[in-house]
């Protein structure tokens, strides 16, 4: 671990930026159709439970890296394997996030640019930031959070002033019954974006106010869930369910419909900037988790030197995981939640916490 400390308020900001980044870009819980906003709120409740579980694991040894704690609990061989699996998981998710934002740039602004150039520019910025450490990333989050907040409020007001919102598109609530909505929670919104909060177990040991960690994390997840639900409800109200399902990037489609006083339009470029900033933080946090894992498992004296190699691996993986955007989206909906997110976000952490509970209980009795 590097010698760095960040505050609970910086953790709060990083979690919000992380949760909202790529989830603003796409349509979470789309199988619930007009009830997607409800599926997001229930997914956020699940995220609160998962964060509480991760916080329990963090409290076992607040000053140590989770990779080190795993090896202490399970022994070096088994703990090393668990840690390596999470390094692979974080690398894969970082590559998927990078591909999401690369495809957005190509679709919306640079249709003739090869994907490797767009992704390369994005990953280069992340490499530079991760090399500087978690304190720099946290301070950048504080600085850019205010800018993103102002632009988001402005965008919402412009949508309202344009008279585009039609609340009837959200009706009937639970018109298809509770089944499709719960299916969306259990197969989509629980894992993305809220289950991905597991990566913050790598950030928690750097907080200089351990007693405020749980409160900051729970508040950040709760606020993120409400904001994301409002965003999805707005997109459905403006575009309708069918257009939301067909659109690759519903928020940008919503912003493109803004026209105030017949001159204020085509504002999607500004909101692309906001989305890219969010994507930068999400990719950087995942890359930081991978870098720390590699440094712990392979005992690197200077982890920053490994960042370039890790960035190149993530870049190559982002291009090779799918031949086109349709294949990428299909993989993210059908394969990733069940075979990647479920074991890594829920099954393994629950098993690890269970073993940790019985082991610490046994030690106290001795």
TrEMBL record:
- Claim: Transport is one of the keywords in the record: yes
What subcellular locations does the record give? Membrane
Question: Which topology term describes how it sits in the membrane?
Answer: Multi-pass membrane protein
- Signal peptide segment: none
The entry's cellular-component GO terms read: membrane
Family designation: Belongs to the amino acid-polyamine-organocation (APC) superfamily. Spore germination protein (SGP) (TC 2.A.3.9) family.
> What is one process in the GO biological process aspect for this record?
spore germination
Predominant location of this chain? membrane
Q: What is this protein called?
A: Spore gernimation protein KB
UniProt KW keywords: Germination, Membrane, Transmembrane, Transmembrane helix, Transport
Membrane-crossing ranges are: 12-30, 36-57, 78-95, 115-131, 143-165, 185-206, 218-241, 269-294, 306-326, 338-358
């Amino acid at each position: 671990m590097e010698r760095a400390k960040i505050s609970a308020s910086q953790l709060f900001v990083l979690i919000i930026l992380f949760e909202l980044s790529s989830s603003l870009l796409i349509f979470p819980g789309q199988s619930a159709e007009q009830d997607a906003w409800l599926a997001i709120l229930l997914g956020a409740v699940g995220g609160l439970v998962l964060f509480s579980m991760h916080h329990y694991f963090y409290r076992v040894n607040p000053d140590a890296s989770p990779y080190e704690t795993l090896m202490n609990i399970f022994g070096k061989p088994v703990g090393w394997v668990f840690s390596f699996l999470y390094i692979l998981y974080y690398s894969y998710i970082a590559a998927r996030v990078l591909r999401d934002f690369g495809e957005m740039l190509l679709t919306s602004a640079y249709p003739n640019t090869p994907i490797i150039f767009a992704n390369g520019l994005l990953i280069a910025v992340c490499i530079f930031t991760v090399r500087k450490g978690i304190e720099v990333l946290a301070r950048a989050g504080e600085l850019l959070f205010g800018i993103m907040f102002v632009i988001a409020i402005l965008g919402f007001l412009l949508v309202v002033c344009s008279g585009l919102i039609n609340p009837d598109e959200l009706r009937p609530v639970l018109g298809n019954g509770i089944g499709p909505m719960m299916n969306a929670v259990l197969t989509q919104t629980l894992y993305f974006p809220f289950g991905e909060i597991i990566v913050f177990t790598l950030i928690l040991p750097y907080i200089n106010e351990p007693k405020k960690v749980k409160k900051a994390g729970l508040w950040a997840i709760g606020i993120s869930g409400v904001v994301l639900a409002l965003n999805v409800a707005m997109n459905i109200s403006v575009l309708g369910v069918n257009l939301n399902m067909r659109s690759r990037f519903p928020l940008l489609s919503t912003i493109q419909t803004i026209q105030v006083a017949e001159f204020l339009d085509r504002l999607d470029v500004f909101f692309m900037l906001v989305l890219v900033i969010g994507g930068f933080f999400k990719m950087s946090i995942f890359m930081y988790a991978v870098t720390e894992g590699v440094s712990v498992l392979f005992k690197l004296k200077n982890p920053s030197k490994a960042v370039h190699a890790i960035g190149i691996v993530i870049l190559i993986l982002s291009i090779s995981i799918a031949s086109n955007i349709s294949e990428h989206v299909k993989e993210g909906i059908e394969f990733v939640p069940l075979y990647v997110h479920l074991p890594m976000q829920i099954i393994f952490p629950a098993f690890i916490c269970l073993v940790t509970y019985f082991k610490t209980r046994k030690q106290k009795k001795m």
